[in-house]
Write a structure and sequence with these properties.
By secondary structure, the chain is an all-alpha fold. The protein contains 1 helix and no strands.
Length: 29
């Protein structure tokens, strides 16, 4: 994982979290 600035890290984590939650919801559906 790349080292990013705090704002950049938060953006990436937010994006990954959304993708992860979407995947989990799809698997659960």
């Amino acid at each position: 994982m790349e080292l990013l600035s705090v704002s950049g890290m938060e953006h990436v984590l937010s994006r990954d979290a959304k993708a992860f939650l979407t995947k989990q919801l799809t698997l659960m559906a």
